[in-house]
Amino acid sequence: MEIAGIDRAGAASSGDQHRDERLPRWSPTGGRIASITESAAITGAQAENGSRTSAHLRICDLSSGDLEPIAIPAGWRVEDLIWIDENRMVLLVAPDSSDTAVGAGSTRADIGEVRVQRPDDSRRRLLDLSIADRRCSVRETGTSTIWEIASRSNDRVVAIVSDDASESGWYRSRLVRFRADGSEHVLHVPAWQIARPSVSPDGRRVAFVEGWSSDRGHVAGDARLIDLDDGSTTEWSLPGIDVVAYDWIDDASLHFSGWQGTASVIGIVDDAGSLLSCEQDGQIRREVARGQGSAVTAAVLHRSGSAPRVTVRTDDGCWSTADGAFVDGLDDAPAPVTIETIRWASSDGLEIGGLLVLPEGRPGAECSPIMMIHGGPANLWTSAVPFGAVQLAGAGYAVILPNPRGSVGRGQRFSQANLGDPAGAELEDVVAGLRMCRRSGLVGDRPAGVVGGSYGGYLTSAAAVFTNEFAAAVVMFGHPNLISARFSSNNPAFYDILLGGHPGGSAIQRYLDRSPVLHAHP
Length: 522
Hints:
Blueprint (H helix, E strand, L loop, with lengths): L18 E8 L5 E8 L4 H5 L5 E8 L5 E5 L4 E10 L2 E8 L29 E6 L4 E5 L5 E7 L5 E6 L4 H4 L3 E5 L5 E5 L4 E7 L5 E7 L10 E6 L5 E4 L5 E9 L2 E8 L2 E8 L4 E5 L4 E7 L6 E6 L6 E5 L5 E3 L15 E9 L5 E9 L9 E5 L13 H8 L3 E6 L8 H4 L9 H15 L8 E6 L1 H12 L3 E7 L5 H7 L3 H8 L8 H6 L9
Parallel strand pairs: 27-28, 27-29, 29-30
Antiparallel strand pairs: 1-2, 2-3, 3-4, 5-6, 6-7, 7-8, 9-10, 10-11, 11-12, 13-14, 14-15, 15-16, 17-18, 18-19, 19-20, 21-22, 22-23, 23-24, 25-26, 26-28
């Protein structure tokens, strides 16, 4: 298999607002950074193939600013990548035919005509890439599907894998190390979901995150360290923080990134979990990656109404795009809204937090309230508020963005607090937020609306059926019938965890009781 190159002129410019960037990864020396760039522009050839985006691996030399774009092999989507040395990389790829609707940075494949697909056709695999000659080959790794990878050398590749290649199989993944012949040595079978493995510089230990996660690509939780030689494990949690990733700085310390409240947070811990530093700067950054042995950090910057951008921070504390444009100078138009942090007590006294989005220059007391509920549920609203909230606020509404129990950003006890209780206490959290905003004059005492997508759509339907607080509800791709959702979705394992079992067993009554459509009546 050969990778076709493209001319340097084919690389998107830093000002291209139709480009999304993801997966920033440092080279071993820290002198270059690779990322995946996807452009919404469609060429004639892409249109004929049914592709909506043009994807490239982009390698940026930080000293010269040179960009080296390399086309992604036809038929594959890159979901992760690692450097082996300065000239070799390993790409984790999913076939274009696979259903990756749950995965971060990926999309559901266009169906077009009816397809007959064997289970093995959707298996995620590894491609070995030679950067110099732009050639890659499939690496033999057995029959498991591979979800994430990490390595410090070609003979110590650590991966998160599962036997089931479907999205549902990801919920029951395991951590393994691949032997030279492609066979697996199992390192860890987790109780929850795992993500972001990172191998220490000396190749002896692997760090990763474990926690309850409703969606692949969004795991946030606690730390696990495993010694690759003797199998011993070290565990820790950071109070009030759900960590998304750990990256080794040296053999004794790690950089972390994660969520705290409605903000993204970065910091440093030692290899026993003692907190050495922690900071927030008001920006929302995802996919944070620390360069080994340096103070250079990369992250994908998220701002309301703007495309995600790969940014780099050096030891002078300044953030810029990978090709040199300073973040403060980017031509992103600020959203014409005011964003406030709000807190309230739920019906059982638990403090709940969220955001209030108002039209710029207009008091909330003059605005009709709309509750917008996030999906997941193990997700959160941040100050990079969704475009829909900006649009509604711009139309004169006061938009409440709650982070009820089950959200991330407050530790695993809080994010797991809705398991076995969907549309229970978490719905009371949402209602209590609306009542507090009305009582405090933060929003107008007018009929309220509620809207949400995915799990937020489920809670929206629950709010419409199980409460009398809302005059209108808009359910976007929700699942108000938990039984039909469980049996027709691509991730039934999610429902089994959320509701504490399979609907064919003792959990059936919970499925029936918590399905809003079964309780709706004129």
